[in-house]
Amino acid sequence: MAKKAQTQTGSRAIRAVFADAKRLAEDDKLPPDPDPNEARDGILPGRWHGAPHDAMPPHCPVRIIGRDADGVVYAVTATNDFRAVEKWDMPSLVDLFAPQGNYMMWAWPGFGEVKVTDPDTMEEKKKLVVKRVERDKVMMCLKQEAARKPLFDPARQRRGRGGWRDKHDRFIWHSGGWLWSSTGGPNAKLERARPGEHEGFLYTRQPLALEPWAEHVTAEESPALRILQDMRTWNWQRSFLDPILLLGWIGTAIMGGALKARPVVFTTGGAGVGKSTLHELLKIALEGMVTCSVNTTAAGIYQRAKYDSLPFMIDELESKSGSTRAESVIELARVAYTGGDISRGGADHEATSFTAQQSFLFSAINAPPMNAQDKTRMAMLNLARLDKKNGIGRKVVVSAETDGRMMLRQVLDGWADFNKRLLPNYWEALAAQGLDARAIDTFGTLLASAELLVGPEALEEMGLPVTDHTHLGEMIAAATAIERTENLDNWHKCLDILFQSQIEAWRDGVKPTIGGVCERLRSNAPYPDGLTAIDARERLQLVNLSIVPAGKVRPEMGPCLAVPADGPMLKRIFADTEFLSGVWYSALKQAPANIVLRAEGGHQKVKINGSTKHCLLVDLEAFDAYAQALA
């Protein structure tokens, strides 16, 4: 019997609401900014140690971060905003110090005389008071402070909103106004601090994103349990696995930049499968942190993302003739999977750079064409049409005010357990079944995230034996076998293209494939079913290839396909692929040494069409055994 989902209620929920109200009241308080003529901590205007520019004034509300090689100064304003200062006029200085303008006048005062009346003698006297700011002194002080700091690179050292990991493997959530962390465990306490410099990274104030729930949330009272039960009502291809993977994506979307690998999820299905309703559920569950787009571009995404690690959901990512929009968006998701640098030129010929560390979810009727390097980073979730009783007019049950905040609190409190126990457990279970590191990073991270949110009992009720590592690994390996076998290694894809290519000019009017010729050679059958080495060589030389007969390289070795680095027909075969212009030669060198030989005899001079060429030798029997093992 499925566990009934329930949300946190009662006194703990009341305490959480009260804590929110108390924090808001505290946050609204502005720091004092007394008259610039008054002494501060006993220090008269402009008389602080190091004035006016040999040191920074005490308790300065503006913090200088550093400068870059071009002399641009980076600062954090009095309101905790990030600024790149190139002009030192009064509007720029006021922007830095507002609303602490009196401090700037106190620190770098420009004095002037005013007439005052002595209350005792009623005589009129002249008195020096602060009337303005010595702008040049402010500029000199701030620029000198920047010169004393290390060079600063905002593309690498600045962090925006979302989830991050510090150097001690603690999870940090940047909500825009605060940095949040947790002491961890069931008795965890939230800790928060104003954005600032932390372990070599700069966190600055941003527009408000989601803030965590004020009370600890158990798996039994997590809204994720209700969301998972709702997700199960869709018609998934793998009903015992796909809803769990999608729930896991919600958790990884929150973790964002804290993860070493950010799995991509791609949902596909035709009309009537409920993709739009599913997107609505996810959008509301992640309200306040996710960006949802339709028909967007990669440029639109990274201009919106900037330094944040908040997730993106892209609907209708269809491949259209003559457009590379979908391919460029998928390329961006691939870069963000492990956190890569993105650099784009601007109209002013200045490059804009940032590190992509966002989680992506895509949706389409048909997924666009993708390379293996893209597919291995994805969990493909296929949907079938819903029954009318479930698919017409259905409404999702999600609370935007509480659900995302509660799941964020679960991630904050459970990060250490996720990182130190859950991830290693799934790694061990999947590695035992022969899954490669990329597949484990993708599926293992999603499964560990789902267990963090709803606990092992809910996954067991779904039919996933999380407590039995052997059985669990076997089920995941079997369920993901087809999509993993579709992801050929680079060298394998190159060889596959070669074998599927036709030999265009054959005098008998038949156009066999290169792979077909190699297979007939290996069959050892008499003609016409089989071919001799001489017959195969005669056919393959039409496409600039050749055959080294069995026993020629080593006595025990079968026939080898000889592939040169050049040849007009080979160039034509690979012309519309990523292996064009001789790239096929370097790609084949990436194969295992027993398939594309690299020991003695691996590079051999072979005569092709009267010309002697250095060729790579592909052991046809070794390759066939390798391909059979993958099937």
Can you walk through the features of this model?
- The protein is of the alpha+beta class.
- The chain folds into 3 domains: 63-150, no CATH class; 219-484, Rossmann fold, CATH 3.40.50; 490-630, no CATH class.
- Helices cover 37% and strands 18% of the residues.
- The chain is built from 22 helices and 23 strands.
- The strands form 7 sheets. It has a 5-stranded parallel β-sheet with strand order 14-15-18-13-19. A 4-stranded antiparallel β-sheet has the order 7-8-9-10, with helices on one face.
Summary?
The protein is of the alpha+beta class. 37% of the residues lie in helices and 18% in strands. It folds into 3 domains: 63-150, no CATH class; 219-484, Rossmann fold; 490-630, no CATH class.
What are the defining features of this structure?
alpha+beta; Rossmann fold; 5-stranded parallel sheet; 22 helices; 23 strands; 37% helix; elongated
